[in-house]
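re: ur question from yesterday

yeah so i grabbed the chain u mentioned. its 393 aa long if i counted rite. heres the sequnce exactly as i have it in my notes:
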Amino acid sequence: MPLEETVRFEDLIKPIKLDYFLDQYWEKQPFCGSRGRKDTFTPLISLSGVERIISSLTSTDPDWIQVRKAGAPVLSPETYSTKRGFPDLAKIFDFFRTGYSITLSKLHKQCPPIGALCRNVEATMTQLGFVLSDRVGSHLYLTPNGSQAVLPHYDNLNVIAIQVEGVKNWRLYDMLEPFPVERQESVTPNEDLPSLLCEKKVEAGQVLYIPRGFYHEASAGAEYSMHVTLDIYTRTWADLVSKIAFGAPQMRRSLQFSDASRLNGQFTTLLQSLNSFDPHPIADRLVENLIGGFDPLPASGFDQIHRLTSVSLLSKVRRRTGAFPYLFSRGDQLHLLFPGGGFRGPTQIEAVFRFLCEATCFCVQELPVLADDSKIYIVTELIRDGFLSIVDP
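ran it thru and got these structure tokens back, copy pasting raw so excuse formatting
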């Protein structure tokens, strides 16, 4: 069975349901899923896979790879590079043996199974009404036994840590500031850390959710540990209010005040003037800008292109891996947006848009409303843009 059908957002939070997770845990408190099989997440990545990724890198740019140990400076890339600037596996192995962790970033670009999982999380969050500010990121932490990669810190995003191999011992602390939007720039001394909430032993096959702002640290147990983090960046109400305010000419006037009472009166008047603004189109635009920047996941795209001329009314097509629809209206036009492209049309053919949002596999002739040649044209364009793929007979 394809990975995208076996590892989904819902699977990461088992045994609870998605609506309960959002109600009780999302940005409220940490959550640790019950233990599945130890090999539950091994299809995502393996040790040999990590080695292949490192070997495939053409630089030791910290945006792709870092070698680090808690309490010590992050190693300079030159210390584990070849003369040509490539990662030197022998040197990296040596650092790993002496307690340094290996971290890989942008794993969704290097590892298709993780890319598919990230896209599933993006689709799920969007369908739930959340507005993401960036695509779901991914990192891998490979830590030798008894070692720790990072000192206690908080993240300005929501983190899902997936334990692939080994054991990680987590210490979870409270927040100092709710819902931070700025990254932590300096180390927080131990005496300034918030109160310790709990300690969690997370074993292979388990998942830990850490809400934005909660301090945390983790160390490997008696054996090495490998876990993958999914980083979920969301827009905030402050983002929406800011967009609305900058769209109102009166809010862009120079700020001037002579005393507190006058300032309060002007501020109240300006806020009242925003009551007439409809926030929905602005939120739609935020989603549109994000999804418009997504690319289709790699999945036989070249093969699909040279099969375009074979599309007929009897052709069977399915939604491509990682493709998800976002439908919205603007004026008298409907817009269907998806990673890699989109199209628009008059509201008179709304049935076509609804069908494409609901059907995941269909024959071309099943498209409603349109004439036969238009059905073939629409499906061909959707294959070309990466939303649909041809199903083999």
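noticed a couple things. The longest strand covers residues 167-175. also DSSP finds 13 helices and 16 strands in the chain.
anyway ttyl
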